[in-house]
Specification:
The structure is a homodimer of 315-residue chains. Helices cover 49% and strands 12% of the residues of chain A. Chain A has helices at 23-40, 58-69, 89-104, 113-117, 121-127, 136-153, 165-177, 181-186, 210-219, 236-250, 254-267, 272-280, 299-310, and strands at residues 12-14, 19-21, 49-54, 73-80, 108-112, 158-160, 190-191, 200-202, 283-284, 291-292.
């Protein structure tokens, strides 16, 4: 297989694009594509200050790398979750993010949940109803809160996450199986800012297959953490990813066309009515000031109040 | 496993309903459920004259049986498609429909496509661009035309088809993967009548799993044709059915909840705007008078004109 652009040996063949590329052209192609998506979905402007949420994985570090190469002013945000029991997962991912930033002279903001809130995610999950069995719910809630808070505090215009096409298609698939119109109406490459304090969120890699994102990180020599979070095993999203992978294997491009035709249907106004109503109903949390759907404490503050009230005091 | 109603040995266990039933109670349960769906979706009234499209398979003969048991005035419509090369598929299915009607004293209308239009479906498909490779497109087009014509000619209020949940979920899945909003907006247990000559279409079995419909036909001793149409092999709908079967095996009830949550989203108006526009655009075919989306000949008449112009004349 030869590179379509120069005839050298190709390192990747993307059947859905009918495109094979060599290493050098692939490493150019990814930023070009990313820039195209940034413009197509009006994600942000060249002068905007960006905050990239990084986990130490291929997608988020790859995204930070691409945004920096494209000349954007992009700082990183690492959230220490304290998922270390036996695996050292959080410690390892923190190390990769620090090293990545240091080697490139980039600025990394670190928020350690245990330091700020008084408990790691696994401990918090064990102390709240929300965390029964799996800490993923408390973790997602906490990350969303910390990301928005850090972006507001730092005056960033936009928060960028490394979600790839496989992530987005799996979420879309789940929301479609249950026809969760509220979620469907909000899913997309951009979640707009909200006057009451929700920072704009964007996903510049949303049209890259996971495989493409992984190839980019590998070929760029990015030292990322290969392991998934140890709590991810058995997650519904992974089940949907496997199902979609089978579909993709039988029909190359199925995942991309599923996601793109959804975006097109949205653009044509399928969920327009729903989106309007869902945005009206936000209140300000009486403790942290972040937006929430009901008056009083937000889900984050309620959960962590519960954690603090139940945590055994260790001398 | 015991019958929930009488404690006798159960013949079927429906995990998604947490319900096991013996033969006698199952044979009552299916008509009860069907009557519930007829009312829930306002399909038709007790005094309406119904035409049931029958293929000789378990679903359509089972439906005809159930509607008759429920006391509805329901005639059958068998369409002879001439799919007999090597398999005798059409001849066999015709025989089952005739025997079913005769044994129960029911009225069966027979329309033979080759007699009326001058060629069997396989011959027509081989002579038209629409039929390249597979006759399924010409066949579907022709069946829809003949069904509507027969229902209009006979003055029937409603045309009923035997589509089961597996059929509906597979169609929904395909339309969702491509986000075909036009098709999504029209899918449902009822396709309303249209002033310009579209007869009301209903699917009273749309919430029964294929397995439940098959069990009913078997336990009722209905002599139906087991074989699928020989042209169905490799069809996309069968591929989607297999994918949904894997999902159902892992998460019992997934197929039903997918379909029901879709209907609920529709009821709440997700596709409301789309539905309104799609109904406005019908014209009357200048040859057959049936409704069509563009002025002039309908797709059925155009296709069969082409068949007749290309058919070799045999002395």
């Amino acid at each position: 297989m030869k590179c379509r652009k120069c005839g050298e040996r190709a390192v990747i063949n993307m059947r859905h694009h009918k495109l094979a590329l060599c290493k050098a052209h692939y490493l150019d192609w990814i930023p070009e594509q990313t820039q195209r998506f940034i413009e197509k979905y009006s994600m942000f402007e060249p002068t905007d200050r960006l905050l990239v949420a990084v986990s130490g994985g291929k997608d988020s570090l790859g995204l930070w790398d691409v945004l920096s190469r494209l000349g954007y002013s992009a700082d990183g945000l690492y959230i220490g979750l304290g998922i270390d029991e036996g695996t050292g997962y959080s410690a390892e991912s923190h190390k990769r993010c620090e090293a990545f930033a240091r080697e490139r002279g980039l600025n990394l903001i670190v928020v350690d949940v245990a330091e700020v809130e008084g408990a790691t995610i696994p401990v918090a999950a064990s102390l709240t109803a929300r965390g029964r069995g799996k800490p993923c719910s408390v973790c997602g809630l906490t990350k969303r809160h910390v990301m928005n808070q850090a972006a507001r505090d730092g005056g960033y215009a936009v928060l960028a996450t490394g979600h790839n096409l496989d992530d987005e298609a799996a979420v879309l698939f789940g929301n479609t199986l249950s026809w969760s119109v509220g979620y469907l109406s909000r899913q997309g490459p951009v979640l707009p800012a909200h006057a009451d304090g929700l920072v704009r969120k964007v996903k510049p890699f949303c049209r890259l297959y996971e495989r493409e994102s992984a190839a980019y990180a590998l070929l760029r020599g990015i030292d990322y953490i290969y392991e998934e979070c140890p709590h991810a095993a058995g997650a519904t999203s992974i089940y949907y990813k496997e199902l979609l992978n089978r579909l993709e294997a039988d029909r190359p491009g199925a995942k991309l066309s599923f996601y793109l035709s959804f975006l097109e249907a949205k653009r044509q106004g399928v969920f327009a009515a729903e989106r309007d109503t869902s945005i009206e109903e936000l209140h300000s949390c009486t403790r942290c000031g972040q937006p929430t759907t009901a008056p009083g404490l937000c889900a984050f503050c309620r959960t962590w109040e519960q954690v603090r009230s139940r945590r055994p005091v260790i001398a």
